[in-house]
User: What shape does this take?
Amino acid sequence: MARMKFLCDADRCIECNACVTACKNENDVPWGINRRRVVTINDGKPGSARSRTTCAAVCPVSCFLVTPDHVVLHSKDLCIGCGYCFYACPFGAPQYPQLGNFGSRGKMDKCTFCAGGGGTEEPGSIEEYRKYGANRMLQGKLPLCAEMCSTKSLLAGDSDVIAQIYKERVIKRGYGSGAWGWMTAYRESVAT
Amino acid sequence: MTGFWARARFIFGAIALVILIAFAVPAHAQQNAPVDPETSVVNEQTLLQQFRRIQGDIDQPNQRERVLIQPDGRVWDHFHEVTLRWIGVVAIFGTLALLVAAYLLLGRLRISAGRSGRKVPRFTGFERFSHWLTAVSFVVLGLTGLNITFGKLLLRPLIGPEAFSVFSEGAKYVHNYISFSFVVGLALIVGMWIKDNIPDRTDIEWFRQGGGFIKSRHAPARRFNAGEKLVFWGALGAGTLVAISGFLLLFPFYVTNILGMQIAQGVHAVIAVLFVAMILGHIYIGTAGMEGAFEAMGTGEVDYNWAKEHHDLWLKEQIAKGRTGHPADLPAATPAE
Assistant: This one.
């Protein structure tokens, strides 16, 4: 079975933040929430990655669901907004709209790999879109952030395929800083 | 291009400095060659060996998002899913097992001389109100808190995912708000009783005489015996810690960063389960474990013979102050039955 991953070829990223914008537009992400972000480290190594299961493990109400493609989805109907997945996530992926008094959080929101949500909504339905954003995977498309990336720095898809693309690039240009986040997320990196 | 390099150097240098100041760098990491900011290609592992987490510069307004990779999340995950559960199970079920064993071995500690029928006022209405405000808050906080750690194992399979989520969300809000009444109750208790809970020489004697659990010996005590003092200081210490860590969790990231939030949750959870274990013992000795104890917090009056047996020095003070019914009419110690 394919395993869906993102890979950011940090050496190609120009920090244009278009992936952030595309994600917000495609998924109608609420104010104050950014599912994707670009963090500049040293010479510019942006990134976003998904934690494998720490979020699902610590969730007090077990609202997570892992698809056969290893995309981690969650149910906003079951989420209670406790914030624990954020504490556990090595990548700070979960986001919360701030609701009400104090720091009280609303339902967690995160990148879904443009694969809809983990709730009971009909895949591809307007109800699913309102809660989780687009379900591009259902249409055979990859996440928009990666598809529209102008320098093709951000890759999305089956990990074997994107790892192969990255390897070929590194061999051709003679250098590469590695698949950022992969060692932390998957305990493996792309051998180059 | 030179400008860009200079900027990148500056940014990275500043970030590295902040990280170095904020976090103690492990000794082994200090021996490694520092990351050369001139090098454009640095991989994830090299950075993680030197810093606890990787953070950089971000154009989005939420600066918390600067943290890109924080492997400590894994450590916290393991703590929450494995360590904390074991601490909780051992502390709570261990205490329950001890209490059941105590009940089976010692039984209910009776008033040796039987009831005299004469009452001595022990706690005022306001004292009892403060105690029960704290107690009810504590029980609610304890149950809703334990639900976060153990609910998905115990309750979720019973009532199903949907009902469990509805319950847990309500429980979360109840936990958040009841925290305030707990803190108020605790503050009242501490203000009223701290002067009677200062440790003194009587406490050493109380322990030496077996703390009232050995019938043939008499353990002396003033208003609060050494066991009660332990509960008092335990509640004050644990209560303060859970309150501080709890308010940090209630106002996420207002005061601290991601590492601080993880530590706050760890402190909150561990102290809380130990607190629950201690209060289980307190509940036992105040109800099933000892005859005549509950009415102190129930009606506010205790039996004269109970006071004489468990708080003799306090009773003498009360008699001297004329606060018991018939000071001259001290009953001769008649054997029970």
Notes: The radius of gyration of chain A is 16 Å. The domain at 4-186 of chain A is CATH 3.30.70.20 (Alpha-Beta Plaits).
